[in-house]
Amino acid sequence: MTQSPAITSADHTTFAVGSAGSFTVTTSPTATSIVESGSLPSGVTFTDNGNGTATLAGTPTAGTGGIYDLTLTASNGVLPNATQSFTLTVTQPPAITSTNHVTFIVNTAGSFAVTSVAGFPTATTLTKVGSLPSG
């Protein structure tokens, strides 16, 4: 081989928490090795397929929503190696984590805290639908 490799696939992809995702890294001419550096979210792996491609795949676990900045490096024995800044965005819907019911006693003060986990990239806003008893 007399030409250094180039990474020809996109420089970003998006996965969703709880859903299987997959992205194929491609090179031209064919790289003999593709490596990834940077932190991956729990549930996602990077695999060099040994054929000039690599696969980023898996199911991101709850709580891993965010942006992951990675560096991909492809080599084939001809310098320079190809490098690509790569962004993996993991979306996560917000979730209500408190119970779905509460009991109040008439003429007795009571309170109930609604708790939630923020989503990514959207901020969490809690709203009420329906009516509450007076007081």
Walk me through what this model shows.
With 135 residues, the protein is mostly beta strands. It has a domain at 6-91: Immunoglobulin-like, CATH 2.60.40.10. Helices cover 0% and strands 41% of the residues. It is built from no helices and ten strands. The protein has strands at 6-7, 12-16, 21-28, 33-37, 44-48, 53-58, 66-75, 82-91, 95-96, 116-117. The strands form three sheets. Strands 1-3-6-5 form a four-stranded antiparallel sheet, with no helix packed on it. A four-stranded mixed sheet has the order 2-8-7-4, with no helix packed on it. A hairpin with a 6-residue loop joins strand 7 and strand 8 (82-91). The protein is rod-shaped and about 85 Å long. The N and C termini lie far apart (79 Å). The mean pLDDT is 93.
Mean pLDDT over the residues: 93
Low-confidence runs of at least 5 consecutive residues: none
Instruction: Using the alpha-carbon principal axes, give the shape.
Output: rod-shaped
The first-to-last residue Cα distance is: 79 Å
**Strands of the largest sheet, in order across it?**
1-3-6-5
Question: In CATH's first tier, which class of the domain at 6-91 applies?
Answer: Mainly Beta
- CA radius of gyration: 23 Å
Encode the helix/strand succession as letters.
EEEEEEEEEE
Q: Percentage of helical residues?
A: under 10%
